[in-house]
Amino acid sequence: MANSTVKLLTNQAEVPLLYCQVTRATLENKDASPRMPYTFYGDRINADFGQPQLIFCEDMLPSEKGMFSVSKVQEIPALSPAVTVFDQALVLRDSDENNNVFVPAAGVNYVLSANTATWSSVNPFAASRFLVTQAFVGGRTFICYEKERIIEYDAGTNTFATISLTFPVGMTITDVRGISGASNYLLLFTDTIIYWCAPLNVLEFADINQGAGNQIPIDLKGKITCVRPIAGGFIIYTVKNAVGARFTNNAAAPFSFKEIANAGGSASGEVSSGDAEGTFHYLWGTAGLQKISLEGAQSIFPAVTDFLTGRKIERWNSTTKEVELTSGVDFVVKLAFITGRYLTISYGAGITTYEFILVYDTILERWGKIRADHVDVFTYPYVTSTATYTYDELIGNYDSQTVDYVSYDQSRLITVQPKKGFAILTAGGQIDIVNFDYAQSEDVGVAIYGHIAQRHDKQITVTDIWIDGMKATPTPVISLLCSDTGNRRADVVTPDLEDDSVEGYGHYSCRHTTTNFDVAIEASVVLSSLLVQVIKHGYR
User: Fold this and answer.
1) Dihedral of the CA atoms 256, 257, 261, 267 (nearest 10)?
2) How confident is the model at residue 455 (pLDDT cuts 50, 70, 90)?
3) Is the dihedral of CA 401, 406, 407, 410 positive or negative?
4) Which residues contact 149 (CB under 8 A, 6 or more apart)?
5) Hey, is 208 helix, strand or coil?
6) SS3 407
7) Is 507 helix (H, G, I), strand (E, B) or coil?
8) CA–CA separation, 368 vs 359, rounded Å?
9) What are phi and psi of 135, to 5 degrees?
10) DSSP structural state of residue 269
11) What local confidence, expressed as pLDDT, does residue 41 receive?
């Protein structure tokens, strides 16, 4: 028997989404997979070379060389007295660039003041329907309650005003299911018709001489569920397909409509993400997870589609050191694209709330996961502030300046740093911001690496574990989850801490023999290297 030190993979692109279905990673690999040609697998993601790697995580996101734990810092406290009616977060933006968070809450109309950071119910009413849509056009944000009213927020008076539109003959607000905005046009939609406003009057929908108009796109295959802007036009989503609308720059016919090939349908606007500046949307629909543009649709991440339809949800139990499985539950799913980088997929077994967020880093092209009970994920609209110049920042000396400090300050704006606006809204109105700071140590993340075996027919003894990137506080908890039967974990072993004298370094030791094992790390960590030393056994 000989000692062997094994480096576990910390930055793999493919992460298993279900711990209960993870295959064993054999160090002495005698399986057939390494000898099979790529054509045998069909697609590269089907290849499995048995590399020891991450197989489960919570509150962990990818970094360049590994994974790091994230904390959730409270930005806005929950409403008091307590409520549970918050549902979605929309941003109210005006021509003066006032940005306030708005939550419909079935007509309660909560507005978060950018100046006081407090919630208030503004001009509430009892809404009978729950589809609420938003449009930003001509420096104005409009909110539409399905078939009831369209309102606009005045930041100066903290009031909502009901907007009166000029409809075509025979049409009323009770026909309007929702709104959107594209190419500076305000759009209305019914089950089958798209209306656009006059170019110079966003409230005019009747006068064709001013450029207002409407159309039933011939390619619609079902009722319209939402309309979302995209660079160059907008996309109409129905229950069965999607139709692209390109901006033509022709006032007489401002949009041309064409079905987006291979695009699935969607049940609501909650399952698509995108904005007017982007060239594509993400969609969770009848064809699974897709990337949608005006040019076409591409199915992506089949493993995620299979997971979201697989009706199994897993949670880490820090007391028993087990990944607990609940089967036979239907997921609710919601998509968002955050801070220009992260695709977030909220999912859970509830009806209106979500428990987890799958996070795809579109730059590193890797996955992470956050555990948080929530109702929405959105980009928090921090107030753009001014800042004072210092002497060192001035060009030349003080006497050579041609303007005073006030003028300098008026010309200098401090914007939000990248990755600072990842916000999570709870049903009670609390807003947490995900802290991407590598120095944070408020919360711990959970990362499990395994199922590590020597061979399927041999046992293995674990002697040492070396971890780089752990913080001293909170106190890290390292566990070996061992199995003699395959996937089912039978024993939990706590290794002894041998050395943590160097910051970010931890050396743990034990001597435990098993068929295969996992290394479970509960810590505030920026994990870059994970080594285990094992003793290989002969046949038994």
Assistant:
1) 140
2) confident
3) positive
4) 162, 163, 173
5) helix
6) helix
7) strand
8) 5
9) -145, 135
10) G
11) 46
Short-list 239, 312, 319, 232, CA closest to 271: 239
Instruction: Tell me the per-residue pLDDT of 15-63, one tens digit each, with 9 for 90 and over.
Output: 789 999 988 888 876 554 555 555 554 555 555 556 789 999 999 999 9
What's the start-to-end Cα distance of the chain, in Å? Answer: 13
Tokens of 121: 């119910």
- Least Cα distance to 69 among 358, 495, 469 occurs for 469
E strand or H helix at 39, and its extent?
helix 38-41
Q: Distance (Å, rounded) from C-alpha 529 to C-alpha 539?
A: 31
Residue 335 pairs in a beta bridge with 345
Q: How far is CA 318 from CA 56, 71, 304, 315, in A?
A: 13, 17, 25, 10
113 vs 472: CA distance, rounded Å? 38
Here the tokens at position 389 are 């110049």
| Tokens 């199995």 -> residue | 483
Q: Strands of 110-112's sheet, edge to edge?
A: 90-93, 99-103, 110-112, 119-121
> Of the given ranges (34-38, 164-168, 219-223, 437-441), which has the lowest mean pLDDT?
34-38
Entry field: residues in the chain = 540
How does DSSP classify residue 210?
A: G
- The reported pLDDT for the residue numbered 465 is 97
% of residues, the chain, pLDDT over 90: 69
**Strand duo 413-414 + 90-93: pairing:** unpaired
Instruction: Give tens-digit pLDDT for 147-191.
Output: 999 999 999 899 999 999 999 999 999 999 999 999 999 999 999
Tell me, what amino acid is at 436? F
pLDDT tens for residues 482-509?
A: 998 877 888 999 999 999 989 889 999 9
Query: Measuring CA to CA, which residue among 235, 303, 296, 218 is closest to residue 269?
Result: 235
- Cα 240–Cα 241–Cα 245 angle in degrees, nearest 5: 145
For residue 515, give the amino acid letter.
T
**What would the two tokens of residue 305 be?**
């589609």
Q: What are the distances in angstroms from CA 522 to CA 18, 130, 148, 320, 526?
A: 19, 40, 50, 13, 12
Query: Can you tell me the mean pLDDT for 115-142?
Result: 92
- Chain-centre distance for alpha carbon 538: 47
Distance CA 518, CA 449 (A): 5
SS3 assignment for 79-130: CCCCCCCCCCCEEEECCCCCEEEEECHHHCCEEECCCCCCEEECCCCCCCCC
Q: Where does residue 252 rank: exposed (0-12), middle (13-18), buried (19+ CB within 10 A)?
A: exposed
pLDDT band at 116 (very low <50, low <70, confident <90, very high): confident
Percent of the chain with pLDDT over 70: 88
Q: Tokens for 410?
A: 């008026």
Total Cβ atoms within 10 A of residue 400: 8
Return the beta strands (E) in 146-223 as ranges: 149-154, 159-162, 178-182, 185-189, 194-196, 213-215
Query: Cα–Cα distances in Å, from 375 out to 218, 272, 326?
Result: 36, 15, 21
In terms of C-beta density within 10 A (0-12 exposed, 13-18 middle, 19 or more buried), how is residue 444 classed?
A: buried
Q: Which residue has the tokens 């207002």?
A: 212
Residue 342 CA to residue 336 CA, distance in Å, equals 8
